[in-house]
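Q: Got a minute? One more chain.
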Amino acid sequence: MTETASTVPPVRPGGEPVLDAPISTKPLVSKRARRTTTIVSVIVLVVVLAALIGLGYLMYASYDTAEGVAPTVRLRDISIVVLAVETLLVMILILVITVLLAVLVIVIYDRVIPILEQINRAINEAADTVQNVRGTTAFIGEKVVNPVIEASSYASGVRRILQGILDLWPGRK
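A: Always. Here it is, folded:
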């Protein structure tokens, strides 16, 4: 399955991906793969159970029934064989789980590390933006706001002086 242009994240001129786009939108396992895995697992489980039941029956039915052999001896021998088979199955399952854990670590490394790097770039860009805003506010404060406040205070003082002079004018009340 190839990626179309709509699933490829947009890239900036410098080669960095745009931070708004997700790294990957593809699921780890497709629905078809999950369904196939489930069907194969059920078939394998049924075959293994049928084989164990068949072997147990053959062992029980074909056991030597000579005089002097206690019936518990037959069950003991069958139990030993079943425990040996179970031990082999458990060892195989532990091996499979170990391999799956290794695959999980690789998948996490492939998926999480790029996301963390993207988050780190976004945090760095946010810090740069905050520094730019701080510098801009300091510049605006020095070059625009302070002169406007000074001019406003001078204008207010002149207005109050003129108002005081007009209040002294005779006949004006």
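A: DSSP finds two helices and no strands in the chain.
Q: Perfect, thanks.
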